[in-house]
Amino acid sequence: MITLENYIKELQKIAKSHPSFAKLPMIYAEDDEGNGYQKVLNPPSLFSVENIEDDYQLQPNLKVLKKAGEGIDTESKDFKNLNCIIVN
Predict the structure, then answer these.
(1) Cα torsion at 23, 25, 31, 33 (round to 10°)?
(2) Which side of the chain, N or C, has fewer Cβ within a 10 Å radius?
(3) Mean pLDDT in the chain?
(4) What is the pTM of this model?
């Protein structure tokens, strides 16, 4: 699984080698086999899933997300439970 840090590094490499590519729209694959593609419509957001290591059934941690949507305190237990970035 790629980290945000490595994702950013890869994007920076693309932008550095081909600056005009930084203006290209972004899309994402619906699955790992490339059976469909959709536009990325939203900026990245903090997110929380029950078991980040589960490759097939990522379930939102709704308790944390509800509180995060209300304006979460960065010192709170719920903030510490945010465990991923969602890209769409």
Answers:
(1) -70
(2) N
(3) 82
(4) 0.71
